[in-house]
Amino acid sequence: VLFQLRNPSSPPCIRSWIPWFGAAFQFGKAPLEFIEQARSKHGPVFTIFALGKRFTFVTEEEGTEAFFKSKDLNFEQAVQQAVENAVSVPAEAFYQNHGNLYSMLKGKMGPSNLYVFTGTLCKELHEHMAHLGTEGTGNLNDLVRQVMYPAVVNTLFGKGICPTSQSEIKEFEEHFQKYDEDFEYASQMPECFLRNWSKSKKWLLKLFEKVVSDAERTNPSETTSKTLLQHLLDNLQGKHLAPNYGLLMLWASQANAVPIAFWTLVFILSYPSIYKKIMEDLTSVFGKAGKDKIEVSEEDLKKLPFIKWCTLEAIRLRSPGAITKKVVNPIRIQNFTVPAGDLLMLSPYWLHRNPKYFPDPEMFKPDRWKEANLEKNAFLDSFVAFGGGKHQCPGRWFAIMEIQLFVVLFLYKYEFVLLDAVPKESPLHLVGTQQPMAPFRVQYKCRE
Ligand code: HEM
Question: Is residue 295 a part of any domain in this protein?
Fold first, then answer.
């Protein structure tokens, strides 16, 4: 109320009586639910004062265009501190490297370059799926991770560069999972508040000193033979930060794509008519079940648009809770003026639930993607899971391809009995795609 009296044109501000923590406590417990409640109470634009910062949320389409296009907003300033907390890259080096590294990643993972990865990824997925055997029972989330993580890492970083073999992976996975689990909190606060997270970060950075030196040692002069990591090393200014950037790239390549691969399968397996259609499509392209290690090309994937629509629909429903920009000059959104210094937050998760753009928004309806001009690499209007404007996720086409390819191989090879009810998505995280709230066990066995 005091704030409103001081500045009537600012959005309503939610704060609590403990000034520094502000609304952090309620907000931190379940940010996605908190946003929804705040939205119904205060309207589509509101500010949360938490951890000494002002986060202003824009939860409806007004403001989306400004969010992606306005020169009064800055992406780099919004994420710099988070990058410094997460991987210890100092501000100066971050600003020096960001534009160049972003362009490189966008080019290397763009739609016209995907063919470079498809063959290797297909082979790697087969190899790691073989470790699951011909039948078994497990939590689908773990099964997906066991296959996707090593296959993708070997494809992007080079085989034998990161630990991926059965014998060395356990300790790595423990640290990486801890690192990923608390990444969001850790990127927002000093490391001393999160002791276990800090231990895992140090362990991973130490490991990446070796990863980077192996990648440097084997770096070929021929551009077409380089891995994505080697391109990153070639483009980096300040070589001592190579382990830090390597770790950041590993996290970016795994954190969102692996949960989405899980959700895509969950949605497909829990809608019998969708599953049936997909199995018919697979049969029409690859023939009956039972063939060993089908080779899937870019052309094959183009013949399976329905699986791509399922992937995009899973991304729509489980998209990041928020993406962020720093307000560098006051900006007008609806009838409010958002002051400089605020972090402006746009919620893909809530925008994707606007019935005006996505009728029956809570329903998994892959057919809605018929309307998107995917041949021209355009998504549906108001689909912002990868951000928008000039800072869109540079890995988006690779992400869609890897998930589509994984789903093709997994469903072609195995059939499933579902042992648990479909879990809800966890409201705990704001940054990144949602994790499941509960285990989802399946029995799997090779199709005959
Ligand atoms: C379904 C999977 C994915 C989703 C939903 C996703 C989403 C996002 C979003 C929302 C951003 C921030 C954009 C913004 O704030 O405007 C981002 C940034 C980024 N993503 Fe992704 N991403 C995915 C997969 C990937 C993959 C597979 C890679 C790499 C192989 C990747 C690499 C990156 C990088 C490097 C950035 C930082 C870009 C920058 O600093 O400008 N992402 N992603």
Answer: yes
For the stretch 22-38, pLDDT in tens is 555 566 667 888 888 88
- Distance, in Å, from the CA atom of 359 to the CA atom of 412, rounded to the nearest integer, reads 31
Looking at every residue in the chain, the average pLDDT score rounds to 91
Atom 43 of ligand 1, nearest CA residue:
393
Same domain, 213 and 183: yes
Q: Which domain, by its residues, includes 142?
A: 90-320+355-446
Q: At residue 19, does pLDDT exceed 80?
A: no
Residue in 256, 311, 383 to alter for ligand 1 test, most ligand atoms within 8 A of Cβ: 256
Mean pLDDT of 242-253: 96
Ligand 1 binding pocket, CB closer than 6 Å: 102, 105, 252-253, 256-257, 260, 315, 319-320, 323, 385-387, 391, 393-395, 398-399, 433
Domain count, the chain: 2
Looking up tokens 């890492």, which residue turns up? 153
Beta-carbon contacts of 292 under 8 Å, excluding residues fewer than 6 positions away, are none
pLDDT score recorded for residue 214: 95
**Torsion sign (Cα): 361, 367, 373, 376:** positive
Q: Tell me, what CATH number does 107's domain have? A: 1.10.630.10
Q: Is residue 84 part of a domain?
A: no
393 annotated ligand binder:
yes
